[in-house]
Amino acid sequence: MSTTSNKRKSYTAAFKRQVIKFAEENSNAEAERNFHVMENNIRRWRKNKEVIGGMSSKMKARRFGISPFTEVDLPLKQWIINERTAFRPVSTLDIAGKAKCLATELKMVGFTASSSWVRRFMKRCGLSLRTRTSLAQKLPDDYEEKIQNFRDFCNRNQPKNCQYMHYGNMDEIPMSFDIPPNKTINEIGSQSIVINTTGHEKMNFTLVLCVTADGSKLKPMVIFKRKTNIREKVTDKVIVRYNEKGWMNEEIMCDWLNTVWRSRHQGFFNNKSMLILDSMNAHKTTKVLELMARNHVIPAIIPGGLTKKLQPLDISINKPFKSHMRQLWRDWMASDNHTYTKTGRMRRASYAQICSWVSIAWNKITTETIINGFRHPQLIPGNATSDPMIEDDSNDEDMDDHNFCNLSKQSLDVDGNPNFDMEIEDVDFDEL
User: Fold this and answer.
1) Co-location of 305 and 409 in the same domain
2) pLDDT at 51
């Protein structure tokens, strides 16, 4: 019995095996009447019984899509790898052109390098079109050894009576007055995707953040790029400094040690402490190191290129903090609290507004997030969630200021780095 519809039907392998079994026990005509399948299909299925028997139950067709021109696959893939190793772009048109050249060299007849062939070739070789990304920070070849050496340095030089509140990490974060997201939902087919800003995406300032291993947050410092102090009244929960470059320097680093690091709990009692820093030049000048020694601070300079592996702020804190700052900026942009220039251009957020956002975003960082940042790189002894108090042993040898200065100088080389081999990573504000 033939079907009245001209639409082609497809059948699963399980159904085909059922029909074949019934036809073998009865007849093709009986199977046609019982399953409403054309008899010529049943004859073809019985002929290909072994193939259908080896198919999975839900498969509807056995496609033998093996390209007759696979000889070009290996040399073509190697050419693509060589091009990308040299950071040269490769398009599908480049692949088709190179494939034709290889086919000519191999004397292949009838090869056209069609777009469908290029698509199948890319699927066979595990290739796909990718979006260009910024160059990520590369780890040093011996990064595992350097990580272990840094951990050994921290364990070897940690003060015996040090509590978790005296293990700290400080980092500078470049920010801008406009913080727009890079992506947005929009209708398909739109030619221009515009996100409204005040036009100050390149007007930068610096945030100096510091956390301790017991989950505490120290007061943030904001460094604005200007020659004179701001006249606006800002929140007292943020410290404001300024210079012509808007970045950390030796003078502000010393100021930060005196006003922020010493202001932590029990910091004014000159308790021995360890401060984890990246290898920025302002962190390791002679004046800064001498000030650290006088205040019983052991600097632990992270090897160049390893901050994403060893710096607690980079590991768990900076990203959510920036997300909170971006959301505050978006809320401000959506509000009606704006002023405009005579030409109708929206003015940027004020210095006081920026400081308010910093304070709000910093308060949203949880203690658990901070502790996780210290736990992951394994830089402190024990578990930061346990009792942070470590009893002071009266029999332990104590160090006076002179001996502590000697220890600090012995633990660092002439450039202010720990005595294990490391690369120094200079940080430039304009490059961030």
Assistant:
1) yes
2) 82
